[in-house]
Amino acid sequence: MRNPLADKVVGIKPSGIRKFFDIASEMKDAISLGVGEPDFDTPWHIRDEGIYSLEQGRTIYTSNAGLKELRQEISNYIHRKQGVWYDPGKEVLVTVGGSEAIDIGIRAMINPGEEVLIPQPSFVSYEPCAVLAGAVPVVINLKEENQFRLTAEELEEAITDRTKLLVLPFPNNPTGAIMEKADLEAIAEVIVKHDIFVMSDEIYSELTYTDKHVSIIEIPGMRERTILINGFSKAYAMTGWRLGYACGPAEIIEQMTKIHQFAIMCAPSTSQYAAIEALKNGDEDVVEMRTAYNQRRRYLLNAFQEMGLSCFEPYGAFYMFPCIKEFGMSSDDFATRFLREEKVAVVPGNAFGDCGEGYLRISYAYSLDHLKIAMGRMKKFITRLRTEN
Amino acid sequence: MRQELLKVIEKNSRIDLKELAVILGVQEAEVVEELAALESEGIICGYHTLINWEKTSEEKVTALIEVRVTPQRGQGFDSIAERIYNYPEVRSVYLISGGYDLMVILEGKSLREVSAFVSDKLSTLETVLSTATHFILKKYKDHGTVISSKKQDEREMITP
After folding, report:
1. What sections of A194-265 are H helices per DSSP?
2. Which residue of chain B has the CA closest to A16?
3. What does DSSP assign to residue A121?
4. Eight-state DSSP code of residue B152
5. How far apart are CA A116 and CA A131, in angstroms?
6. How far apart are the first and last CA of chain B?
7. Between residues 12 and 71 of chain B, which touch chain A (CB distance below 8 Å)?
């Protein structure tokens, strides 16, 4: 029989998280700090709208780009938060999670052989999506000394004649890094100078612990060369609803909608009705969850300090990215031993790119009580490691 | 800090001061000061424990009693409310808008004890016009806490 598989797909290595997931799920009594999704339930009034739409029998396809009312609410929301306006008729596309938007955004913009710049450590999807789109992924290794922000120099250095698109993953999973206005202004200059485009994945925008999240679309000259990606998973604790969106110049959204129309049809209608409610009446829920995350963030930062574990202060998402280089072992070894000996699952930093080696991703999408137990075990573990050395 | 502090301790009054200071991002001394201020201003009125008595061997009956009263000249409902809330078996007294005036929450050892309170003490007050007693059969949620079941974390151990 012939080989049924496509070389391009076979060539993509499985996510580093997967391997670790298999070990962790065998251990029944282990506790986890490894999730990338909120511990809150979707607020009840949002779930209730989903239920109501089902009761009303609204179980049919919506328009390809998504319910008109939802696109209008998305446009209002971005205008409210970022002060930038998108035409709900032509510049907003509702997708199946932010993930779909990443995939079709890259596919809509890239010709074979063109380069996509991917700062790492970052979410695991960008590189495979770029490869599947025929792009050449070019990794930019972010540095802790820059608080894992992307600098203009790093960007400049990575750009070639073939560079088409920069993925901008902030607030960042797994580091928790953010880009402030001055950081964005500095890279915007380079972006315009080399005439490249930006895919700004701002799925964690609501989980920013400084005054306010700043989007690159707010920087003059950037709206017209940026695809903005966001969604409902993190802000409204709606991961399982699979709902995200992309906003951008009409000509790009039009082509993305074409792929979406043929590959997906439309995002789930139940989720879309619920999402309208989230955008209309969910602001207080977001504040409440953000406040809780921020308390946990402070708790972990303090716990690491007390253990003498080096960790830069993250201002976004719900992750800490402590450095474990002092123990002279790889992230994989550390995480494996931590799991086996103390029964706590964390994700090795290198699962998010080679430059994450020497770090761990620790999620604080858990209750304070849970975090306390986990930090007790972590302290025990690293104390033991230090006496071993 | 005040609002956030209140929200945290409303859910967990046993949280230790050091931890409270850490999660609020302030000094421990500031927390101590603020708590003292909140107590003296009468904003914090007590630190109670939510107990599911059903799981203990102690027999308890709770009743909600709707009370219609005649307000008194110059004092409105306050003096009759006071006469009622002074009974130690009365847990709560609220002035209510709508079809009746006072909502009285009463806790007793048995139906008989609660009935005796209503007929002997409450109904005989001269300003009380009528009462309607409702016994609580089961508490599902109290003080914002779901009592019946604890939810399991069903998330995968590790997700990207």
Report:
1. 250-263
2. B160
3. S
4. P
5. 9
6. 34
7. 19, 22-25
Q: Residue length, chain A?
A: 389
Provide ipTM, 2 decimals: 0.86
Whether the bond between A348 and the residue before it is cis, its omega within 30 degrees of 0, is: no
- The answer to whether the CB atoms of B160 and A291 lie below 8 A apart is no
For residue A112, the Cα-to-chain-centroid distance in whole angstroms is 25
- Kindly determine whether residue B159 and residue A173, on different chains, have CB atoms separated by under 8 Å: no
Across the interface, of B23, B156, B157, the residue whose CB is closest to A298 is B23
pLDDT digits (tens, 9 = 90+) for A147-176: 999 999 999 999 999 999 999 999 999 999
Cβ neighbours of residue A324 closer than 8 Å, sequence gap 6 or more: A309, A331, A334, A358, A359, A360
- Between strands B90-95 and B102-108, the pairing is antiparallel
Tally of CB atoms within 10 A around B6: 15
The residue whose two tokens read 């069903």 is B154
How far the first Cα of chain A sits from its last, in Å, is 54
pLDDT digits (tens, 9 = 90+) for A91-141: 999 999 999 999 999 999 999 999 999 999 999 999 999 999 999 999 999
C-alpha–C-alpha distance, residues A171 and A177, integer Å: 6
The string of pLDDT tens digits covering residues B19-76 is: 999 999 999 999 999 999 999 999 999 999 999 988 999 989 999 999 999 988 888 8
| Rounded Cα–Cα distance for residues A389 and B13 (Å) | 42
Tokens for A132? 């599947």
Cβ of A35 within 8 Å of Cβ of B157? The answer is yes
CB A122 within 8 A of CB A176: no
Helices (H), ranges, chain A: 7-10, 16-26, 44-55, 68-82, 97-109, 126-132, 152-158, 181-193, 250-263, 269-281, 283-307, 331-342, 368-388
Tell me how far apart the alpha carbons of residues B105 and A208 are, in angstroms, rounded to a whole number. 44
